[in-house]
Design goal:
By secondary structure, this protein is α+β, with helices and mostly antiparallel strands. The chain has helices at 34-38, 41-44, 54-58, 72-89; strands spanning 4-5, 9-12, 17-19, 22-24, 29-32, 93-94, 117-118, 126-127.
Length: 128
């Protein structure tokens, strides 16, 4: 099973702002699930679900991050410490489809908003 974490940002209002018919006051917090926004055709066009590396080549401000993430290396190492034994201990393979086509990498569902781990699209299973 392939699982991915949902990305959220917490924004702190510094000034009064209007969002649709609501007025947001300074000091309030907004929780924004931006992973879902990245796949929104209204924002990124009809092919929002496809990866286009030229987006990053055209806009250099999208490359890198200005965020201070002091524990990012620790978090990456924690994931490796979990994934490496799982791959070594279990026979993991993709489930073949009913038409005899070779297995493909399962796709993460993006149609629902959850507070943690996203599962694969229905039918995209992994056999362990």
């Amino acid at each position: 099973m392939i699982l991915r974490a949902v990305r959220y940002s917490i924004l702190y209002m510094k000034t009064f702002s209007a969002l649709h018919n609501k007025v947001l006051s300074p000091g309030h917090k907004i929780l924004m699930p931006y992973k879902l926004m990245h796949f929104d055709p209204a924002i990124f066009g009809e092919n929002a679900a496809e990866f286009h590396p030229q987006w990053f080549l055209r806009n250099k401000s999208l490359v890198g991050s200005t965020s201070y993430l002091p524990f990012r290396f620790f978090a990456r190492r924690e994931v490796y410490m979990f994934v490496a034994p799982v791959l070594g201990r279990f026979d993991i393979r993709s489930q073949s489809d009913t038409k005899g086509r070779p297995p493909r990498i399962p796709v993460t569902t993006i149609t629902i908003s959850v507070r943690g781990i996203l599962g694969p699209v229905a039918g995209d299973d992994v056999i362990i």
